Amino acid sequence: MLTHSVKRGEFTLKSGAKSSWFLDTKQTACRPDGIVLVAEALLDILPSDATAIGGLTMGADPVAFGVAAVAVTKGRMLRSFSVRKEAKDHGVTGRLAGALLPDDRVVIVEDTTTRGTSLLEAVEVVRAFGASVVLASVIVDRGTTCAELCAAEGVEYRPLLTATDLGFDPGT
Q1: Does residue 90 have an active-site annotation?
Q2: Nearby residues of 124 by Cβ (< 8 Å), 6 or more positions away
């Protein structure tokens, strides 16, 4: 994670906050060795009754697709999907793309979160579709609010790593 994903400099985060460090976790999640490690770590914490994995595109895509691919090599079937940022009005319409089914037991994932808003947006879309969310997780939680927001929505939240784990102050 530290080798490929941590950038130092002056950055403006999605939240508008300024930071002297930035996490581009796709630099880890989009490398074959990185996604295998992420997938194995996530598979260790996924509820055994989970049937699908996905989240808001683009942050969730490499994580969800990689986990589903590695899971099948271990005899576990997880369908994967993406939540579009906007509804598509042609072809297969709506915000969902992929193999999500109503009544699925879903794990919502993201590469990195600071506040948790993308995770919760995906939770809302998945619930509206008729599936239930059994866990939300990210590769790295760089902030301090996601756990509280998930708890308020009744969603179990388990990040793989936090800013503190990587040696950073989550408030900076």
Answers
A1: yes
A2: none
Task: Name the 3-class secondary structure at 140.
Answer: strand
**How much is the pLDDT for 21?**
87
Among the listed residues 7, 14, 18, 88, the single catalytic one is 88
Q: Answer yes or no: 4 catalytic.
A: no
Per DSSP, 155 falls in state: -
Radius of gyration of the chain (CA): 15
Contacts of 21 (CB under 8 A, 6+ apart): 6, 7, 8, 9, 11, 168, 172
Segment 33-59, tens digit of pLDDT: 999 999 999 999 999 999 999 999 999
Whole-angstrom distance, CA of residue 51 vs CA of residue 53: 7
According to CATH, what is the number of the domain 34-162?
A: 3.40.50.2020
pTM > 0.70: yes or no: yes
Please list, residue by residue across 46-70, b when 16 or more beta carbons sit within 10 angstroms of its beta carbon and e when fewer do.
beeebbbbbbbbebbbbbbbbbbeb
Task: Name the amino acid, one letter, at 145.
Answer: T
